[in-house]
Amino acid sequence: DTVDYHAKSWQDALEYYNIKSNLADVRMQIGKAADQLLPMFATEEQIRKYSKDISARKAKVFEETYLEKVKPFPGVRELFELIKKRNIPIALASSAKTDELELYKNIANVSDLVDFQTSSNSKDVKRSKPYPDIFLAALKLLKNPSTDRVIVVGDTPWDAQAAVAAKLRIAGVLCGGVDEKILRESGCSWIYKDIIDLTKNYDKLTKEVLKI
């Protein structure tokens, strides 16, 4: 559960370089990596001069101020355990960098349950969400299954847009704080209140979609 913390960290980093932003606007961009987020607030010249410095400051602020406050959404390990019990492989496709993703896996207590993972700095990911690169990279790791046998789970419109662009169906969860209407308009086929709600409905969802 990191959206608010990432938003505050980005806003701090932007303001340090005299780039004005509204916290609510920054929050709506979370789910994108720096390559897609910064153009929403900074000019081309500012990006050219400061993009690496802004990203570095954002990471520093997040690590020093907010990381210790990060907690997993309730029920995450239970969902992963259920998926594994059903013999379904799990691939994480995160806008975080690889080292950050390792931290999040540990915080969520799912490191031992993940089969594959991609991140914003993976070699096969040239552009972050809402481009489909990260999901296409995940499909490659999964040995390119038929896309009608894959379900994405996400909590931002950028997850949904990237999934649709990769010709994947996505279940949206509201615990990230994005309105249901926005998630549906962005491409989510199903909406669940939170991870626990998704877990309760998991077998129904997979029976409907995966025919298992």
From TrEMBL:
Cellular component GO terms, alphabetical: cytosol
Domain of life: Eukaryota
GO biological processes: DNA repair
CDD domains linked: HAD_BPGM-like
InterPro entries: HAD-like_hydrolase_sf, HAD-like_sf, HAD_2, HAD_sf, PGP-like_dom2
MF annotations from Gene Ontology: phosphoglycolate phosphatase activity
Pfam family, any one: HAD_2
Protein's name in the database: HAD family hydrolase
Organism whose genome encodes this protein: Adineta steineri
